[in-house]
Amino acid sequence: MTRQEGYPLEKLALLNGEKTVKLDPGDLFRWPIVTPAHEKAVLEVLRSGRMSGIDVSKKFEQEYAKKLGRTYGLAYPNGTSAILGGFYGLGVGVGHEVIAPSLTFWASVLQVYSLGATPVFADVDRDTLCIDPKDVESLISERTRAIVVVHYTGMPADMDTLQKIAQKHNVPIFEDCSHAHGTLYKGREVGTFGQAAAFSVMSGKSFAIGEGGILFTDDRKVYERALLFGHYIRGDEILSPELQRFAGLPAGGYKHRMHQLSSAFGLVQLKLYDAQMHTIQKAMNYFCDALQDQKGIRPIRPKDPNSSKGGWYFPLFEYLKQELEGLSLTRFAEAIQAEGSVCYPGSNTPMHLHPLLSEMDVYGHGKPTRFANLPDNIDRSVYLRKLPISESIYQSLFQVPWFKQFDRARIDEHIAAYRKVLSRYRDLLAADTGDDSKIGGFSTFFR
Predict the structure, then answer these.
(1) Which pLDDT score, from 0 to 100, does residue 437 have?
(2) Are residues 245 and 121 in the same domain?
(3) Structure pTM?
């Protein structure tokens, strides 16, 4: 019997058996991969005292935009501010609505509160975990100013259908690609579909430069509005007469300059990422291929051969407990962890379930902030409705190992750990006290 086939006759490590994963992981999970070239670039900026300048950041913007095939790039201190700047660039303001998936990190849309707008949450597609186009179209109103498409955990959303809906209703798409650096949708890189797109590039992401974010667009007006909103020292780039006279102060009162140590790191990473990404893809697809036929689990990855998950931030599987006689995900994860592998239950808890989106008066309007700038007679049921897929699937998801290197022997051990537990799952049923109702988190779940 090969290692990859598992050890169905061995006792589970959780039940005092021998652990499956024994090899030292080495650099299997190390990220980002810091090279002498990164160190040299960062030290050059550090020693020159130009940490708060803009020359290196502007070069990073230009190089990244060129690589992605967008006209304009604008660097930010984090992805959250890049998305906020993008919303302002698109003209999101008081009384507007922004449609977004509820199953995502809060920074995909909650910034609209700062602009006086209202988030409207759509359900997700079960196969992709991305926003469901059918639900999106049902939510469009005369107040809709943007559709936020999140390529969740690197899975590309259904851009063909979403673009048709956006064009039909003349509503711009804003792509949140913070999980999806290098992801392809039918051969085309995400971040190139929307009128604007933003990426987080903090150290946990698949394209990691320390801390930062970046906004892309081909629309000069969007770019200049974003500059005006938070990049106050770059007023000379604002050319339109309607905006130029306001340059010199940040229209939003925000300081959106990227730290140049991050942009220096990023310039090097732009040259290295594609090769690193392809190594990650080889490792993750090898792992998924080996477990694709296993009862009780489903790898979440694109079915289309010309689509991809980029750098696989963060790899999720769906847990199908009905195929394992009702064994709880928490008990299953405990057994996998005991074997020495990675299995963390859950994903982001859907945002619409948090009281911030139904009760909290953030700014003192005398009513919940979500409804503060909508007509007084608005039917709130549209905003407080159930989202069946989002509300059920997040407690059936789990994170698997995120391999950064292709090391067959070490990856085979993790495959064997999963196969072993799945082959002996009945041994776990008798003492199953797992509580799957506690799975998930609003802030983040990635570990």
Answers:
(1) 86
(2) yes
(3) 0.96
